[in-house]
Design a protein that fits this description.
single chain; about 300 residues; alpha+beta; 5-stranded antiparallel β-sheet; 3-stranded antiparallel β-sheet; 12 strands; about 30% helix; about 15% strand; globular
């Protein structure tokens, strides 16, 4: 009730153990992912590397996205962008109407170009040294996917991820005025298909005998591998959860999660063979900073898993 939950779905060993909807939710309701979309974008980067569209995450993003030459992303490793450590100055405070995330969000509301916005950011710190959550980093990854594959995020995801994993319903992305996907938050899908994506990652990128996302990419995506990536009270990070490649790592239990504002979540617990999806319309989210609802929700998930 507190977070205005619209859907709660629990998978155990790949089977639905609990499924319930409230308010404006529903089994066939395509719900906006918010930043849960970031984890899908990460999967697409991994697939694009497997298909040799991208040589290495050690490469500078501007090797593939020349429109960012001269911006704060010029010369920055793809890996640092995947790990929210690009070095670009950024303010993700939803309670501040003049924050970068709210300026970026107004493109969705009023029109404009995400590509043009991405090129306006200034450098804030040395890349790869500090974990600062930055939704524009994911938008840059979306540009990388588009420019290397020569197709839209929508088309690439449909062919390489959505249909191969056996999604039950079609998904869609919010677009800007230039038909570029809102890569950092604009995916819309059903609770069941969000759960299927979580199950894909629980099983190391493989479903029904088909390796859809490279296994090593899945492992690397959920493994903090530097001091600034580690969970806990970390002076090198702006949030107490650890981070991988666009996936959160709340602790060192082996669990990992995709998170979106207003309490959208895909929580994966490989040791317990469980995936939990929670979709919400939290009416008070962002009215004060920080919001601790994610911590409370994960505590709930751990109790569900325990029992």
């Amino acid at each position: 009730v507190k977070t205005d939950t619209v859907a709660l779905l629990i998978l155990k060993d790949g089977r639905i153990a609990y499924e319930e909807y409230w308010l404006t939710g529903g089994k066939e309701q395509q719900w906006i992912s918010m930043s849960v979309a970031k984890s899908f974008i990460s999967a697409l980067v991994g697939i694009a590397i497997e298909e040799d569209y991208i040589s290495s995450i050690e490469d500078a993003v501007t090797k593939y996205v020349p429109s960012l030459i001269g911006s704060s992303y010029d010369g920055v490793r793809i890996k640092d962008i995947l790990q929210m450590s690009s070095g670009s100055a950024w303010n993700e405070d939803y309670s501040d109407r003049n924050s970068d995330i709210n300026r970026q969000g107004r493109i969705f509301a009023l029109g404009g170009s995400y590509d043009e916005f991405a090129a306006t950011l200034e450098k804030g710190f040395e890349p790869g040294t500090y974990n600062q959550y930055n939704s524009n980093d994911t938008q840059v990854l979306g540009m990388l996917i588009r420019d290397t594959t020569g197709t839209s995020i929508t088309d690439y995801m449909t062919r390489k991820l959505w249909h191969p994993m056996g999604a039950e319903s079609e998904s869609f992305w919010i677009l800007d005025s230039d038909s570029m996907e809102m890569a950092f938050a604009g995916l819309n899908a059903t609770a069941r298909d969000y759960a299927k994506f979580g199950e894909l990652y629980r099983l190391g990128g493989k479903l029904k005998g088909k390796q859809i996302v490279p296994n090593q990419w899945v492992k690397d995506s959920i493994t903090p591998d530097g001091p600034h990536m580690m969970p806990g009270d970390n002076p090198l990070s702006d949030f107490p959860f650890g981070y991988g490649y666009q996936w959160w790592v709340p602790d060192l239990s082996g669990d990992f999660t995709a998170l979106g504002v207003y309490n959208q979540m895909i929580y994966v617990s490989p040791a317990s063979d469980m995936v939990i999806v929670k979709l919400s319309a939290n009416s008070v989210y962002g009215t004060e900073a920080p919001s601790w609802d994610e911590f409370e929700t994960i505590t709930l998930f751990k109790e569900i898993i325990k029992h």
